[in-house]
Amino acid sequence: MTVKDTQMLIKDMMKRLYEDDTFLPEENGDARERFFQSGTEILTTTDKVIKSYIRVSRDNREIERIPAYRVQHNNIAGFYKGGIRFNEHVNEEEVENLAVLMTLKNALHDLPYGGAKGGVVVSPNQYSTRELNMISKKYVQRFAPDIGPTHDIPAPDMGTNEETMDWMVGEFKTIHPGNNYMGAFTGKSVANGGAQGRREATGRGVYHSYLWLADSWASNVKEEEVPEGVHRQQLRSLHRVRNKNESGEPITAAVQGFGNVGSVAAQMADSCSRLNHRITAVSDHQVTLVNESGLDVDRLIKYQEKHRELPVSEELLSRIGVKADILPPEELVYQKVDVLFLAAVEDQITADNKELIHADIFVEGANAPIDKEADRYLHEQGKVVIPDVLANAGGVMVSYIEWKQDRVTYLYSEEEVLKDMTDHMSKSCEKVFDSYFREGLSGIRNTCYMHALKRLFTLLYRHGKLF
Ligand code: NAD
User: Fold this and answer.
1) pTM: predicted TM-score of the whole model, two decimal places
2) Using alpha carbons only, how large is the chain's radius of gyration in Å?
3) I need a labelling partner for 56 at 20 to 30 A (CA). Which of 49, 130, 254, 381 fits?
């Protein structure tokens, strides 16, 4: 999905909201039209795009000039919030789209944050720790006036982690002596004020959104309770997966991306006591590993934690005792499985390959892994897509807990953190799936956008911004 696609979807949903006379019934006629025009304009316009260059001296003494971004989309619901991505494909349009998605995600889950995102055009595994430390500190130096615990609060994303956040908060403290600094970044290490369980939170939340729909929700809903057509087909897909489980046959699953989000989602699925899965394929940027009888996920995770990648050869696989065929990374999405967890990068299922995909249920751990046309196609086929803004919010939910604990200097236990996150995720899922399946809206993603936009529009209206 491009930023234009996301903006188009916002416009479509705002039009529906305008036509829904049960929403804001006190405003009608010309005033209603003006308010909605103004609200649509605000929500499809980004507040601020900042581009800078980071100069870094490499270990070989060469000087490199690296583009870096911070995009702040909207803060009507609270301080700007969103991760910083280190990746060679980062560009301004991608960062802007991710910032808009953060505004929608935070609004959908009723978090008191707006949306932002950051990015640096760098491939982290080609840089030494010293070089990455310098890039992280310089990022903070460049963007310091626009970051802060009550203004814009970054967190880790692809290619960054708790170490990056620790370096960044350290630099922020140096630049702003005497100011509150702990809440300026979330996703820090626990030793440095981070929340217990933050690293696993996104992957756990991704799995929880799927478990909640396929198990808790679908088991309580009968076909005749949902509108005919696509909705029934989707409910049948969910029931088919559940029936498989009840008959003792494992649910097959594949996981694209075996980093922070994907490896945790894979582990949760593999060890789940409520639904029995067989993980038959996982991938990263170098390989897809396939075993129809099931992969040894725990051993792969141990290897990945040590080497930051999956084993890429027969020899490495046999050294860790894992049996698997080795295929190119792009093969993962074509696997014949019931559930596909997409936890790598954008645009993996597109207009070009949509007809070659076999799974029935798709869970978007990554942001925007399915493009607009493929999304529409999968929906029409009666497949179930749990969208990014719903599924991958576990990280920002726990970031909120971290930000709160940094304000009161209290450390929540890991149990408290994970319970808070899963309760919060269940509440959001119930809101979305209930209104989607029972009211017959067109697409789970549209339903998520509708809930988010209702909140954002109401705040814009109450703050007197719509004239
Ligand atoms: P990560 O850097 O820890 O892992 C990314 C993984 O994807 C790696 O295994 C990498 O090898 C793999 N990958 C990259 N390109 C690939 C390709 N073309 N095909 C297959 N695999 C590929 O990143 P992460 O934190 O796990 O983030 C993954 C996705 O989840 C990103 O889209 C990110 O924006 C999204 N996300 C992350 C968080 C979070 O808290 N980390 C929160 C919300 C959303």
Assistant:
1) 0.94
2) 22
3) 49
